[in-house]
Amino acid sequence: MARHQTSALLRERGQRRPEHLTERRARPPIVELRKVGKVYPGGHVALERVSLRVDRGEFVFLVGPTGCGKSTLIKLLIRELEPTQGEVLIAGRDIATLPDKRIPHLRRRIGTVFQDFKLLPSRTVYDNVAYALQVIGASRAEIRSKVPDALRLVGLADKTGNYPDQLSGGEQQRLSVARAFVNHPPLLLADEPTGNLDPATSVGIMQTLYRINKTGTTVVVVTHDREMVDKMRRRVIALEAGHVVRDQAAGRYTDEESTREFAARLRDEMGVEDEAY
Question: What's the start-to-end Cα distance of the chain, in Å?
């Protein structure tokens, strides 16, 4: 009632409503790091004053050489580690302020895909995915609804009764993806999801992650898969020695051009046909 009276009064005076009454506040990014540093016992500096943000719905590749800080960054996002300095925010919340009893809730809102799968060997494909819902107290009806959908998404609908050791490496990784996504988390982290897979299988995994991203889930992929990054041309954040050295939309694994790529670009810019060059 008071708000309607305020609106009427402002209209009579020919004034605009205050911005805080007329405009929705922008939602915070799903991931934000503010001058984050991480120093391990012994003095090794893993990250130094890293600042970045990932908006909702993005698909991001995190690249860089071994030891550059990629895995440390992922562990900070799920609060497996805490920063030495700076702030790590998930959906606008500084997760360092979370009490310990709330950390499992945080991790349930972040799907995580590991290179070594971390599957339960004594449970079937169906039960591996169902377990991710059981631990958060989902009802049987919810489990019966969500698990088949997740398995269809990753192409394992016909493997529900199989055990992990009856699956190929690619199928095990897709099962890991299904388990991470079954609760439809707003954020999915994939740490080297194609590291041990052949190129054809790697393509399938990336296609699955792309489909998940299209549902609205933000996807962050840590990878050394140069060919995949170059093909997909998504946002690339490159780390080196604990620093962000490149943040590029529609980027490549590196920003270096090969001789062939340089020649092709030069021909295109000069309007020279291939045959005449």
Answer: 75
